[in-house]
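WARN retry 2 of 3 for item q-0093 after timeout on previous attempt; input resubmitted unchanged.
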Amino acid sequence: MSRATRLFADIGPLRESPDFRRLWAGTTLSAVGGALTTFAVPLQVYDITRSPLAVGAIGVAQLIPTVTIGLLGGALADATDRRKLVLAASSCSAAVSAGLAAQAFAGLHSVWLLYVLVTVSASLVAISSPARRTFIPSLLPADQVAAGLALNRLGFQIMLTAGPALAGLITAVPGLGLRACYLADAASFACSLYGVARLPALPRRAQAARAGPRAVAAGVRYITSSRVLTGAFLADLNATIFGLPVALFPAINAERFGGNPRTLGLFMTAIGVGGLVSGALSGPVGHITWQGRAMLWSVAIWGVAFAGFAVARTLWLTLAMLAIAGAAGTFTVVFRGTIVQRTTPEEFRGRVTAADYVVGVSGGQLGNLEAGALGSLTSPAISALSGGLATIAGAIVIGLLLPAFTRYQAQPHTQPQRPSLPSSSLPAMPRNRHKPPA
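OK item q-0093 returned
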């Protein structure tokens, strides 16, 4: 294989695993449908209220169930057949999307109904997403997990790039509008359900704990006992809380580029394009063994890019910095997901993956709150610059305080094993599993 070929995403999982291929295609198509609803709900709320605060409250409606139910969703994933759990939750999510379409066709102008539907939808995703994220290591051999996660992220970037553009086109067509967005999303669930329904059964293990508060607490203790998992989650929170200034985009656009809505749209498009390119060129990711160190480097580059965005004055440089941030963000997510899946025993996989999901979603919401609050106290540019610099500093501090994470090396041909400890003792991650090179 030539060096140029190795740069491109490894499509081995798509070629060799029919189950993964169906799952990837169905999930990607359904995600594009979900992007239509993500576009439509804020626009409908704003059309009804003309209040940015009302639009911002959508994030609160999504954050609360994510944090409160997400970890329980992981416990359910460890205690039940994950395939059946995802099928049930996804079917309910399709019904919620149908409800959004129904209220739009009925001409209802109830913001509270929209909040309720969004909250229910977020609750169902919090239940199904942890189980869905465990599918890849169950379907692929250990040495293809990183490639599978990179392809998963590539599908997300396709959604991030194509979804909003498609939503804008549909909404602009007379007679269609937001109703068509909701209806298309509901129909797209058929793709996701087909991909999951054809998977083999994924029953609970005999030694799996019953779902409940004790199982959730055991999962949290397991994560905090592992320096590697703790480092991965802290690195991601550092990046999203301090270095994700999406809330500042409208103000910076107004300050530097006259508030042109097309320019504002280019901001998110640039991040999506950067992530799409890095996802397509993710071939080398599967060959990187020092993944803790690589994740810290990705987080630091993410911070540098947003610091550059804060001081850029020309449009081309602004978009270039955002594209670099998008590329670094893709690698950060892939490394984090690979570390989580490879270091977690099967009986804890659902709960640890749930924590991964909660960290990924809540970090972005908290980051927007932090960036917006600091921007209102100082200025949008100072908020974005200080956030980028804090992200770089945070990556350095995490690397120094958690050397086990920095030294972590992927072991592609071994599966994580639960240490043999008394049943009353929490299993701790072996301290000598990831030795530094001689």
